[in-house]
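Course assignment 3, question 2. Fill in each field.
Student: A.L.
Task: Predict the tertiary structure for the chain below.
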Amino acid sequence: MTARKMNTLYDLDVTNEMLYALSKSGHSMRSNQVEDKRLIYAVVRHYGSWRKMIIALGFRQAARISNYEVTLARTRANYDKIKWTREVIYESLLPLINEGLPAMKIKERNSALYSAVTKHYGGVAQFCEEHGLPLIRDEKYTKAEVDAFIDRVADTYENYASVWLKASGTVDDRRLCYAAIKRYGSWNKALIARNKPLAHKTPDKVRPKPTLVRRLPPPLVLYDKDKLDKTISEAIRGCSDSHVTIAYLNELDRNIVHSIRQHYGDVFTYFSGLDIDYYTAPYVPFRWNHDNIKRQLLRWISEGYPVNYVCIAQRHTGIINAARSLYGGWKQVFEACGLDYEDYRVDTTMASFYGHRFEDIVGEVLTAMGVNYTKYHTDGPCHPDFVEGNVWYDAKLSQWTVHQSDNDTVKKYEPYCDSLTIIFLRGDRSADKMISEKTRLVNIYVLIESLDDTVSTKIKRELDDIETELAAIA
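Answer field:
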């Protein structure tokens, strides 16, 4: 018959009472001097280890625990008490990303922050992807590369202390500096190994003694939404850094962040609702949602930016992942905007090639209609495809290009011409209408009807070839 385990676990209160009694009696607080094994087992279960209990209950003198270990434990405990919201994570992690630290260095520097990033975003890589930040990956450098860097820095820079390199050097210099410290143990040891003179830190500037009068900051003012939008717009235009941060906004005007939080709850919600290009510097803190994904797509289309899946997936993975999560895929975003994705699938290089071919055909049609034009020639800032005095003609492959991107072009062209005719290929073949007081939108097949049969048959055959080849590569 096997023996039954009769020992029971002390609860936390009983464990603490026994430990305090043991300490007051003058007994050694080292675990190897304690005879009650059940007490040791209870400490491990409640505190994780005997050493953690010593630090938590303040028995370090009896157990010879260093003040450094106590301070380190308290610092980690303070980090654990921080409420890690996305705003706090963004403000804490952005300086480390800009410093050029890879993910593992960030974990070593601030493990609580690293855990919070993993919890809210899935990891540092996902954080960088969502906010459009470059991900600094851990890179291996050979000894020859590290030695060459140490020699170059010591021979070139007047001040080459490791603190300066980390704070002011380029990203490559910071990475190589960390690699040198890791390989040799410290920056000074690396310099000694390469027979270089030791670097010295630049002394801080002498600061004036603070006055004894305490000046309170002025009370915060709540801006209305119109003034807030205007102030934010000026702040974005005036930002010389790559990112608009909460610290930058507070330094510029303390009332900005205060007003944002009062009206919208947090900074991310506010910037997520702005009609701006999220992929143009300075970058703002935001989250992808249904509305700003559609706005970003329509903005790219209006600017003539290629928006097919292959192109966007190669350059902007963040919006692709957000579209997949919120809409089910990139094609579904087009459908939500009321657009046909098939019109956008053509490769941009091939579309440019066929655009030039179509432009040549438009030239033939205009010549057959008796238009005496000049190509790309105006005295002003605009350069339409065909010019006959103050009468201009422009060729477009697709009708959707006109609707989405040529609104700005029309506004730009109309002040410099008496009339503008935009001729397109793909779309409504019967379209012939005025889309503004000066601008006519017409399908090329409408113009062909006025030509004789021989010319129109030849041109229709060429147009059919272009449409067939465009459909084949779509």
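Instructor remarks: Residues 227-344 form one domain. Residues 348-368 form the longest helix (21 residues).
Grade: pending
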